What we know:
By secondary structure, this protein is of the alpha/beta class. The protein has helices at residues 30-43, 80-90, 97-104, 107-116, 133-138, 165-184, 261-268, 293-297, 315-325, 334-346, 356-392, 396-404, 475-496, 508-515, 517-525, 541-555, 567-583, 592-617, 637-640; strands at residues 15-26, 50-54, 68-71, 123-124, 130-131, 158-162, 190-192, 194-201, 208-215, 220-231, 273-274, 283-285, 303-304, 352-354, 414-418, 432-433, 461-463, 564-565, 628-629, 642-649, 654-661. The strands form 6 sheets. Strands 1, 2, 7, 8, 9, 10 and 17 form a 7-stranded mixed β-sheet that branches. It has a 4-stranded antiparallel β-sheet with strand order 16-11-20-21. It has a 4-stranded antiparallel β-sheet with strand order 12-15-14-13, covered by helices on one side. Helix 4 packs across helix 13, helix 7 crosses helix 18 (592-617) and helix 16 runs antiparallel to helix 17. The longest helix is centred in the middle third of the chain and has 37 residues, at 356-392. It is globular and about 75 Å long. The mean pLDDT is 95. The site of adenosine monophosphate has 12 residues, from helix 8 and helix 10.
Amino acid sequence: MEKETCTFSYCKKPEVTEVDCDLLIMGGGMAGCGAAFEACRWANAKGLKVVMVDKAATDRSGAVAMGLSAINTYVGENKVADYVKYVRNDLMGIIREDLVFDLGRHVDDSVECFEEWGLPIWKKGDDGFSMDGHQAIAAGKKSLKDGGTPVRTGKWQIMINGESYKVIVAEAAKKALETNRAATGMAQNHYERVFIVKAVMDTNGKNVAAAIGFSTRENKIYSFKAKAMLCATAGAVNCFRPRSVGEGMGRTWYPVFCAGSGYAFGMQAGAELTLMENRFVPARFKDGYGPVGAWFLFFKAKATDSYGEDYCTNKEYFDDAVARYGDYAKNMGTAIRNHLMMRAMKDGKGPILMGTHTAMEILAKNMKEKLGEKEGAKQIKHLEAEAWEDFLDMAIGQASLWAAKNIEPDKVPSEIMPTEPYLLGSHAGCAGFWVSGPGDLPGTPEHYSWGYNRMSTVPGLFMSGDVVGASGHKFSSGSHAEGRMAAKAAIAYILDNPDYKPSPKMSLDEIAAELYLPFEIYEKYKVYTTDPGINPNYIGPKALQARLMKIADEYFGGCATWYMTSKTMLEEGLRLLDMLKEDANKMAAKDLHELLRCFENYHRILSVEAHARHILFREESRYPGYYYRGDFNKIDDVNWKCFTNSKYNVEANTWEFKKVPYVQMYP
Ligand code: SFD
Ligand code: AMP
């Protein structure tokens, strides 16, 4: 296939801006905002320039854009070592315990900052009943920092009034960047609606010298040159065909705008990935994708099959799970809960129902017994409001779906089911990059630390949040804290390498030609057909995405195959994906929005390819309930209780894989 090039013969050349800084933060989400807040504290005094770039408006960007109703990682009165065990159990025994312990010992400081910055956190009332964040503030309840008692849903989760969570966290980051402009004289160091496309290596062949991207609002492209970079651009969604269809297609649980840009960026730079075979398949309220945690943990609701049986207690299913997956099944982690639900569904016992109505009835009865009829009814009204608000704070679509389906959750149950797979490292998943740990924890094996906390295997390239592998269950608070830890280490790296001057391998003209190639292709061939949407000379972003999601869904263990795959299926899917990667050279875009979609889909292709190749490499089913290797449908600790690491060579389009020893640091 003739390789297309851009000579700006058909499309207008964009304005090209080169930005010079010391630390570049890619992504303005939880990790990115944590990084900006922390980096400026250390950079200002040294006159170091910190820049943050976000593809969206930072106040409402990333997974927390809509808000959240709980912070899922707050250690508080618990032991950090217990947090490590909880994460290890839920992620089937293989995690980087140094990274998880390090996060556990820092996360609460971020949560206490959030409260100081104005996030209303629920507190226990003197009567033992919960007060929502606003009531607690009005009642003068102590802050967490001063020993206030949060309302816990589970052992690690606390309730918040989180509709404006992201706005509050973004404000602190933007204020910090403002102080850095004052300290360094930079005119601008916060770029919104700029999409980072690619890493440009340094002529020294070791460092990433520049991150290149384009504005999604004006014909402008950017080359951000930096001495160190911090990638915080979240995971990947819509690599697999979603369960939502037609006009509902934009509805997913993890946000559609997470396109795996972080995975693609690190892979292009040659950074090592780990456990990229992992994925998260959450159980969610059907079609609305509303989360279930608060219902299970706070409202103590039960999920059953349509015959009223709790599938997690079905002896046949459980014994079979123990036979195949050993003691891991007994931990009843998120994956195994999914696995048992799918057994019931495959036996035709669906729909699976969340007993929201029963939960509310039981709560009402307890309240009235404890507080009497009048006060009890008042408390119930408050709790019901919270139950519905749980979604309004986080998954608004669920509330409108309840209305659309005439469902009154206090009267009837709601259907739940496993969604399509998501690639992420911050929630109950652990797919991401192999990074250095803090190195100070007793029992840390040598191969876990190489100098700068959260630095990848590429010098000067740091990772945080979803893109850090082998350390899930960080959630919003942990991602923020991890951004802070990585940023502090990145500043140390910059100060330790004062002579490094980034010199990108690509010229600004080459960068412009590569980023605007889809425009050139579209303008060059659009007149060939009567409908520019259908043209044999190029492929539009929608078509590219549909083909990608179909391949992944049918060959890499999507919903279509009940998450089942195998060597033969993976190899056929990868053959087709290689052809799609070739077709991506013919991506065409008619406007900036399509240009964004084109490169997002290219990032998804690289992310799901890494995912499928890792599943092919690990010859067992480590995460039953998330995916299954039909040819190795068991857990094999003898051969596979280890990390699976890979390195992609973008020039040669080749992959290296290796096993890396897992070390248990906390008994
Ligand atoms: O219900 C580019 N999460 C929950 N965490 C909690 O603590 N409590 C909850 O209640 C949680 N719930 C929940 C959660 C997520 C979602 C989507 C729902 C419900 C519906 C998880 C957390 O939100 C998650 O762990 C963190 O937000 C992850 O942080 P981080 O920083 O890794 O990702 P981000 O916040 O999405 O930010 C990414 C940023 O990158 C930008 N970006 N910028 C430039 N160029 C590119 N190419 C870019 N690509 C991405 C984005 O704009 C964004 O700013 S519940 O499930 O449990
Ligand atoms: P979710 O709403 O599924 O994203 O879950 C939110 C939080 O609740 C996460 O910390 C989950 O690990 C936890 N969680 C969800 N469901 C359960 C359950 N059935 N048992 C224990 N913890 C759960």
